[in-house]
Design a protein that fits this description.
Oligomer: heterodimer
CATH superfamily of the largest domain in chain A: Cytochrome C biogenesis protein
Shape of chain B: globular
CATH architecture of the largest domain in chain A: Orthogonal Bundle
Number of strands of chain B: 10
Structural class of chain B: alpha+beta
Chain lengths: 159, 660
Amino acid sequence: MTALRSLILAIALLLSAGPVWAVQPDEVLDDPVLEERAREISAGLRCPVCQNESIDESHADIARDLRLLVRERLVEGDSDAEVVDYIVARYGEYVLLSPNFDGANRVLWILPLILLVAGVGLSAVYIRGRSTAAAPGEAGLSAEEQARLDAILNGERED
Amino acid sequence: MIVELGHFALILAFAVSIFQMIVPMAGAHTGNRSWMATADPAATVQFLLTAFSFAALTYAFVTSDFSLNLVVANSHTDKPLLYKITGVWGNHEGSLLLWVLILTLFGASASWFGRNLPPTLRARVLSVQSAVGVAFFAFILFTSNPFTRLASPPFNGEDLNPLLQDPGLAFHPPFLYLGYVGLSMAFSFAVAALIEGRVDAAWGRWVRPWTLAAWIFLTIGIGLGSWWAYYELGWGGFWFWDPVENASFMPWLISAALLHSAIVVEKRESLKSWTILLAILAFGFSLIGTFIVRSGVLTSVHAFANDPERGVFILAILGIFMGGALLLFALRAGAMEAKGVFGMVSRESGLVLNNLLLAVSTFVVFIGTIWPLVAELFFDRTLSVGPPFFDAAFTPFVFALAAALPIAAMMPWKRATIAKPIRALVPAAVLGLAVGLLTWAMWTGRSAIGPIGVGLATWLLAGAVTDLWSRTGRGALAGRFSRLSRLPRADWGKALAHAGLGITMFGVVTLTGYQVEDIRVAREGEPYVVGAYEVELLGVDENGRGPNYFSTMASVAVRDAETGREIAVLTPERRIYPVAGMPTTEAGINNGFTRDVYVTLGDPQSGGGWALRVWIKPFANWIWGGTIIMALGGLMSLSDRRYRVAAGAAKAPRAGVPAE
C-alpha cells in the first residue's frame, strides 16, 4: 500500500512539475525602479493559457516566460508602452486586461458615462416631476378645484 | 434504493411545481378560493420532496456510493466527512439541486410566514415562485440529473477539486445561493403585483424583508468567497473581477438598490414602478449569474460545467422569465400611480441618487463582464476585460456613493434643506479630510486613490456614527446615551451597514495601496527584514502527510525588527493531492488588527534555500470585518419590531427566513 502511495506521489509530482508559484526570486531585477515597472506592466497582461489571471499572478510556464520577456525589454531600455506593444504584437490583444480604446471597444469605455448621464437626466426629470406635483398637493386643491371653489365663493358673495 | 427514492421524489416535486404554477393562479383569476388555497400545501410538499431528494444525494456521498456517476466524479473514500458532505454541492448537478432546494424553501416560507398577505396576492406569488421552480426542476431532470447510475461502478472516486476542500469555499456557495434564490421572492412579488395591478406601501413592506434577507446572504457569501481567495490562492488577492465573482456581485449591487427603493415605496408610496423593475432585474442578474457560472460561457476558474446544452437551457429560462416579466412591466407599469411628493432636496432624492449610482455601477460590471463575449460574437475580436478596466470604471461610482451617502442618509423625508445635515456632519467631514491628508503625507509618491479612499472611508464611518447620534435628540449626555440604546433596531441596522461599508472600503484601499512585498531565496538561519518585521526560515519538513494529501511545510519565524521579539512562527505549506493530481498552496498568515503578515513557500532552489514570498498587508481583516458588520446591520434591520408587528405573530423567524 505504501509502495502504491509512493508511486501515486511520484506520478502526481511529475504531473505537477514546474513552478506552482508566480514571480520567482531569480526573475526579480536588481534595479528596484525597473522591477516596480515590470510588476505594474505584468499586472496588466493576461496569462494566455490561464483563466483570468495576470502573468504577475500566474504559475504557468508561459507566464514566467512573459515576465522574463517584459523584464528583458525593460532592461533594453523600452518604455512601458513599448513593452506592452511588443507583447501584444506577438500574443494579440487578448493579453491586454484593459482593452484598448479603439474601434468597438469605445462602446465599452464610453457606455458607463452615457448610462450615468442618462440616469442623472432621468432622475432629475423624475424628481422635478415629483417636486412640482407638490405645489397643488400642498394647497390641497388642483387648479380646477380652485377655480370651482372661487366660482362658488364668488357666487355666494354675489347672492 | 434510497437514491432511487430521491430521484423519484425529485420527479414528484417537479409534478407538484407544475400544479402549483397553474391552479392557484387560475384560482386567483376566477376568484376560486379553494383553488387558491392549494398553493400552501403544494409549496410545503414541494419543499419536503426536494429536501428528501437532497438528503438522498447527501446519503450517497457520505456512504461513498460509487454507482452514482456524480459521486465517482467528485468524491473519494479518503476524503474527510465534512468534504464528502460539501462535495454534494461542489459540482454542477448537486449545486443545482441545492439551488432548487433553496428555491422551494423560500416558496414554502412565503406560505408559512405570509398568512397576512391578501389571499389572491399570496396565491399569485406562490404560483410565480413555482413557475421558476418548474423551469429549474426541468433543467435538472433533463440536462443535469444528479442521480445517474453507472453500469459498472469503479472502486474509488476521482476526488473533489482540492481547492474546494476548504471550509471557506465549502460554505460559500450555499450562502450565495440563498442570496440568488432569495431574490426570486422579490421577483415573484413584483410579477404578482403587476398581475394584480396594485402596488402600495404594504407591498413595499412585504418585499423588503425578503430582499434584505437575500442581500444579507449575498453579503456573507461574497465575503466568504473573497476570504477564501485571500488565504487559499496563495498571493493574498481578495477580489479578481473574475466573471464568476461579478456574477455574484451584480445581484448584490442591484439588491442593495432594491432594498433602498423599497423603503421609498413603503414610506412614501413613490418610486413604485422603478422598484418593480429593480425587483425583476435583481432576479434577472441572479439568473445571468447562474448562466455565467453554469454554462462556462465566460471561462474562468470557477466554471465547472462546460456543456452548451445546459447553457442554452438556462438562456431559455432567462429569456422566458425576463422577457415575460419585462413585457408585463411594459403593459402594466403605467398603472402604478405614484402618490408621495417630495422636494428636490429630501431623503427621497438621496435614495434616487443611491439607486442611480448602484444601478449604473451594476451595468458597468455587467458590460465589462460580457464584453469579451460581445466582442467575439459581433466584432470578431478576442480580448479580455480584467481588473484594470473594472478598477478604473467602478471606483468612481464607489467614491461618489461614499461621498453622498452620509449626507443623504441624514436628510429628512419630503422636503429638507441641505444645510442641516451638513452642519451636523462637519466633524465627520473634518475627520475624513484629516485622515486622508495624513495618509497622503505618510505615503507620498503613490497614487491619489489611496488618500481619497481612506478619507472617504473615514467619512462614511464617522457619518454613520453622526447619523445614529443625531437620532438621540438633544440634552444631557446621559439621556442621549440611554436613548441610543432604545433606538429602533432599523436605525442601528442602517448605521451598522453604512459603517461596515466604510470599514470594508478602508481595508480594500489600504491593502491595495500600501502593501509591502518581498520575494527572495531564504536560507535557514539567515534572517532578513521586511517592512517592520524580521523574517527567518527555521526549517522545511518535506515529508508531511494529511488525510488525502502530501505536504511540504516550512517554519518561518516572524519577529519585530526593532526589539527582536518573536511575534509568530508561521507554517506556509504546499500540498499535493495525489488523486486529483493537483498542487495547492496554504499560506502562513499571522492575522492582526492593523496588518497581516502573509508568507507563502515556493520551490527549493538549486543553490540551496527556498523561495519565500512575504507580504505585509495593512488592515486586511477590515475587509471582512466590514462585510460581517454590513451583514449584521442587515440582520438588525430585519429583526426590527415593525416586521414582527406586520407578521401579526410573535413567532421568531426561522433560520434566516424573514418574518412577514
